Amino acid sequence: MENNTYSLIMAGGIGSRFWPMSTQQKPKQFLDVLGVGKSLLRLTFERLTEISDSSKVYVLTNERYRDLVLSQLPELGVDQVICEPERKNTAPCIAFAAAKILGLNPNATLVISPSDHLILNTSRFVECIHAAVQEANLGQLVTLGIQPTRPDTGYGYIEVRPSQHLPGAVEPVRRFCEKPSIDVAKTFVDSGNYFWNSGIFIWRAEDILNAIKVHANSLYEVFCGSMDSYNSADEDSFMRSAFAAAEDISIDFAVMEHAKNVSVVVSDFDWSDLGTWGSLIDHMDKDAHGNAVVGDNIHLFETKNCLVHLPKDKVVLLDGIQDTIIVESDGMLMVLRKDKEQALKAYLKQIEDSNPALFQ
Question: Which of 2, 316, 341, 346 is such that its CA lies 20 to 30 A from the CA of 322?
C-alpha cells in the first residue's frame, strides 16, 4: 500500500464490561481474552502491519498504559505511542494525532482502528482497507460498515441507499443512526440498507482536520491553533493544555453525523467489537453442549451454553450449570447469568461504592 498510509490504534479504554480480567490497571486490549497467546492489541498491530509499515503505526492511549504498549509492541519507538493526558473521547485524540502526523507528512492517509476488536479474516480486512484508502484519497471520510447478522441494539447503524450492496463496494452514507431499540433494529436489518458502524475510519489527515474545522471549530482551534508545537520540544506541554481545554466528544458526534463527504465500504470479514463477554462467545470454539472454554483442566458435567475462562493451572469441576459466564482473574471470580450481562457495570459500581479500594 502507499507509503503515505499511517495506522492509528485507539487503545485508551478501560473495558469494564470484561471484568474481572479487564481492570483499570490492565484493560482488555492488553489481555489474551481469546486464549491464543496474544493480546488484542498485539493482534490489532499485526493486522495493521499488513497495511502500514511498523514505522508508520501509532498507538493512542492513556499515560498510565505507555509501558504496557511498549512491552507488547517492542517494534514501536517511544514517539509512536501518543499518550493523552486525560480521557476526552475519540474526537480530541484523533484531532491531535491527525495534526501531529500531518506535520510529518502532508500527504498522510490515516487508518483509525480500535485496539480491542476481533477480526478473523485479515486478508479480507486488508482488501476492504485498500478500497477505503482509494476512496479517502478522493477527499472522502470513510468508514467500514459491517453487514448485520442480527438486530443488535448494541451497535450504531449506517444507512445507505437501497441497492445490491456487494461486499467491498463503496457507498455514499445517508446518515448515522444511534443505537436503536430492538424493534427499530429489526426494521434496519430487514430493510437491507443498514450496516453496523464498525468504528474503523479512513481519511486523509488534511481532510479530517478540515472537517473538524467546519463541524467542530472550537476543537479545531484548540488542536490546530499552534501547529508549530507538534513534533517539537513543546509538544507535551501543548498537548496537556489542549486536552484540558478540549470538549469531551466522539468523532461520530463531532464530525461524521454532520459531514456530507462520507462513504462506507461494505465489509464482510468476520468482526466483533468484543464489547461484552457474550460477544466473545460467538467467536469461540464450543463443545457439543454449546460451552466455550479457556483453561486446561476444566471438567464439565450436565453443563450447557456457558463461557468458562479460568487460569490454566486451576482444576475445576462444574455440574449442572447453564447459560452462565464464569471468569476468574487475579483472585477475582465472576459467576454471572448470561441474560444479566448488561447489568455488570451497575453491579461493579455497587461493589466500588461499598469498597473503593478494590478498584484502585
Answer: 346
d(CA 198, CA 116): 12
Q: What is the number of H-type helices and E-type strands within the chain? A: 11, 17
pLDDT at 2 over 60: no
Asked if the model's pLDDT at residue 124 lies above 70, the reply is yes
The model's pTM: 0.87
Chain segment 282-324, per-residue pLDDT in tens? 778 899 999 999 888 999 999 999 999 998 889 999 999 999 9
Preceding omega of 172 cis (within 30 degrees of 0): no
CATH top class, domain 5-275: alpha beta
**Distance in angstroms (rounded) separating the CA atoms of residues 45 and 308:** 27
DSSP string, 281-347: HTTS---TTS-EEESSEEEEES-BS-EEE--TT-EEEEES-BSEEEEEETTEEEEEEGGGGGGHHHH
Would you state the pLDDT for residue 323?
A: 96
Distance (Å, rounded) from C-alpha 208 to C-alpha 203? Answer: 6
- Extents of the domains making up the chain: 5-275, 279-359
Cell numbers given for 106: 502532508
